[in-house]
TrEMBL record:
Organism field: Pullulanibacillus pueri
GO biological process: tyrosine biosynthetic process
Keywords: Amino-acid biosynthesis, Aromatic amino acid biosynthesis, NAD, Oxidoreductase, Tyrosine biosynthesis
Catalytic activities: prephenate + NAD(+) = 3-(4-hydroxyphenyl)pyruvate + CO2 + NADH
Protein known as: Prephenate dehydrogenase
Gene from which the chain derives: tyrA
A molecular function (GO) term: NAD+ binding
Amino acid sequence: MNKSKVFVIGLGLIGGSLAKALKGNETLYITGFDPKKETMEAALDLGVIDRAEPDIPTGASEADLIILSAPISGILDTLDVLAKVTLKPGVIITDTGSTKRVIRDKANQVLGSEACYIGGHPMAGSHKSGVFASKADLFENAFYFITPEDGEDKAKIRQLEEWLSATRAKMMTIDPETHDQVVGIISHFPHIVASALVHQLNRNPANKELDLPRLAAGGFRDITRIASSDPYLWQDITMHNHDVLLKLFDDWEQVLHTIKQQLVQHDSTSVYSFFEKAKNIRDQFPVKKTGILPPSFDLYLDIPDEPCEISKVTGIIGKANISIININVIELRESVSGVLRLFFQSESARDQAMRLLKDHHYNTYLID
Ligand SMILES: NC(=O)c1ccc[n+]([C@@H]2O[C@H](COP(=O)([O-])OP(=O)(O)OC[C@H]3O[C@@H](n4cnc5c(N)ncnc54)[C@H](O)[C@@H]3O)[C@@H](O)[C@H]2O)c1
Ligand SMILES: O=C(O)C(=O)C[C@]1(C(=O)O)C=C[C@@H](O)C=C1
């Protein structure tokens, strides 16, 4: 069979996950490049790609689809490199960058008019980075933004969507400007807020004495999970969506100012409305299977108070190559058996872990 060649440039979390998903399509042959030698080797060893390319021009010149999945600055640099390569006629170039306007402008500036660049952005990810965190099902049920230019050849858009359909994501066409505003609200600004909450905790004098992270319960952990993301990636994203974010700071300051004034004035009715309105809106969010806010699938189990009990549990799960995204020990005091709460990224991972632990005679249960 004459396979179409997909060349993935940047084999981290997103490039690796896309490569793995696209490998599920037998009509595609996946090649890859990453400037980090150890990432290339790992991508080959893990079977993420079929072939490692020695450099970008070599891989790009043979490709039918080129996917740019480096950090945004790397995507911009790669466009400069691609501009000097003789590409196959009909090749489609897409990217996964978290902002779209800057990349579209650069593609228009450096690629010839015959080149077909169609922007893309899968709306799923993680606070983890790198090829080892990549997963074939990362994008399942998530939205996948496609940002073609007005007048783009419809057959090309269909072809790209068909190749990307192996991700089982939901394709949505949007223009780059609207895209950047939308992701500013639902992704970029929340990352700033999550990191700001961590800074707020850290600078409070009580932190020195009481070690506040130790005391923080689920709420603080949930809302700040994304603050564990790669700082370089988020410097890069926020600097490339600068104008949208500055406007959102104005909105944010207004929201905080309003609730602050209500508290200053002891206006309990308005304070109630503040929380009630947010709850009503939040409660109507559609339930997601995976995607923008990957839910955690939690498993509880009783553990005896014995040395190394937690590492025994994580060892059993780790051996089966199942990732635990978080662990919480509930009421484990000396000589008293406790409850361990394990968080998984998917229902199937949680259920598999449950079966394994049952096989090892642990008492496991689910709580809604
Ligand atoms: N992390 C997320 O949740 C998420 C979600 C959707 C989209 N994105 C976007 O996808 C892209 C990749 O993000 P990621 O999370 O996979 O990051 P990552 O750090 O896991 O992977 C990036 C990879 O690109 C490589 N790289 C760095 N500079 C390069 C260059 N100049 N040319 C080629 N490769 C280069 C790195 O070595 C690394 O392997 C970014 O543009 C990001 O904005 C990220
Ligand atoms: O789930 C996470 O950890 C993410 O940060 C994923 C997330 C997001 O903010 O929702 C991050 C960046 C993207 O471009 C798309 C998705």
